[in-house]
Design goal:
Blueprint (H helix, E strand, L loop, with lengths): L23 H6 L5 H25 L6
Length: 65
């Protein structure tokens, strides 16, 4: 696997013909933080926050008089 490197050492986003330099499949599974891990953690965080709001909205029901 050859990695094309720019003048500053980074891989360019696009090849000269316009195709992505790194396929989305590799972006999804490789890297410092794979995208599947970021997406999973983000989804869990959203569900957790929504759960807090739903839980809080039912705390006042039936309480007091």
């Amino acid at each position: 696997m050859s990695k094309l490197k720019g003048p500053d050492g980074r891989i360019p986003d696009r090849l000269p013909d316009g195709r992505p330099a790194v396929a989305w499949e590799r972006r999804w599974t490789e890297g410092t933080l794979p995208l599947w891990l970021v997406a999973t953690a983000g989804g869990i965080a959203v569900i957790f926050v929504l759960g807090i709001f739903v839980y809080g909205s039912y705390q006042g029901v039936g309480a007091g008089g």
